[in-house]
Write a structure and sequence with these properties.
By secondary structure, the protein is α+β, with helices and mostly antiparallel strands. The protein contains 4 helices and 4 strands, in the order βαβααββα.
């Protein structure tokens, strides 16, 4: 489903700005989400795609998961947010996921795509996409890239 994510090729992983791309595509979760009564009563399928621009300070040698952003952490954060209780808007879910990702100081930007595949029988899915940044971290990464 992620072919619709509007991240331009190479926009997140970049040698010059020393960034890498960490992503989780089309993570399917069952969520209590929506404003209608039936959505409050029954969980529904939701697809979550997370695309992160991460400061790439990995030395390429250590082979230790602690030295990189573990995508398992992202998956667990999405589950924790969804399991926390009913959410009315997919925009709220997207923002909470972005905020959780940006809590890691290595994350410079987070692009989140939320899709509800069963909302309408006439559409494969409906949803939203947001992008959030940590402005000071982005500025620092650009400054480092400019001097390196």
């Amino acid at each position: 489903m992620t072919e619709r994510l509007s991240t331009p090729a190479g926009a997140y992983a970049d040698a010059i700005s020393q960034t890498r791309r960490v992503f989780v595509r089309d993570m399917e979760v069952m969520a209590s989400i929506g404003i209608f009564e039936h959505e409050k009563r029954y969980e529904q399928r939701v697809f979550v795609t997370v695309d992160l621009k991460v400061a790439d300070d990995y030395d390429g040698v250590s082979d230790a998961v602690d030295d990189v952003l573990d995508y398992g952490t992202v998956v667990r954060a999405v589950h924790r947010i969804v399991d926390d209780g009913h959410i009315n808007l997919i925009e709220t879910l997207a923002q909470r996921v972005a905020d959780a990702c940006l809590d890691d100081k290595r994350v410079l930007a987070a692009r989140i795509l939320i899709e509800k595949p069963d909302a309408f029988t006439c559409a494969r899915s409906v949803g939203i996409e947001i992008e959030r940044t940590a402005p000071q971290r982005v500025a620092s990464a650009l400054a480092v890239a400019a001097t390196g």
